[in-house]
Amino acid sequence: MQLLLLLFLYLLGWASSFYPNHESKGVGLQDLTDADITEMGILKAVATFMERNPRPGTQEFRAGQLVDLSPLTPTTLFQAYFKGVHFVDRHREALIKRTPIVAPILDALLTEKMIHQELYTEIVTATTTPQNKMRMLFLATTAWGTKQKDYFYKILEREQPFLIEELQTS
């Protein structure tokens, strides 16, 4: 019973953001329609979720960084959430210099059809150092979108966990 009461109180806190309250900045109930109030509440809830769940490979948001956007609209929220430079782009130089074994990364990318057999063969056979292999691989990433870079990040995280962890904290 106590657990249900705690859950109810927790959910009540989330629901309070759907109506003007003490956290609303200069907004009164008379100024808004029900649709406006609902949209604002949903946007704040989505912004809170986005702050707590950054995209893989992107930097974390400060508390309130998205919720306090002015104006808070679907467009500004989307742009703020997705504008950050992706981890693989931000740490390109370090990934090239410090990734010691490239073959498992290439294998995973080939399996997922993110690179073609021709590029895979060229990287594996034509270059000798891991740095040159990563440089060639990064040439392919320039054409990738966020989805492909997210997957590349997950592969790097799986194959080079200590390097990725260190780069995340730097």
Instruction: Name the CATH homologous superfamily of the largest domain.
Output: Death Domain, Fas
Order of helices and strands: HHHHHHHHHH
Total separate domains: 2
Task: Give the helix tally.
Answer: 10
Q: How many E-type strands?
A: 0
How much helix is in the residues?
Answer: 55-70%
> Which structural class should the secondary elements be placed in?
mainly alpha
Judging by the overall fold, what is the CATH architecture of the largest domain? Orthogonal Bundle
The whole-angstrom Rg is 22 Å
CATH topology (fold) name of the largest domain:
Death Domain, Fas
**Overall geometry:** elongated
Show unreliable segments: 14-19
Keywords: Cytoplasm, Immunity, Inflammatory response, Innate immunity, Signal
Main location: cytoplasm
Signal peptide: 1-17
Protein name: Apoptosis-associated speck-like protein containing a CARD
Describe this entry's structure for a reader.
The protein is mainly α. It folds into 2 domains: about 1-80, no CATH class; about 85-170, Death Domain, Fas (Orthogonal Bundle). It has 10 helices and no strands. Helix 9 packs across helix 10.
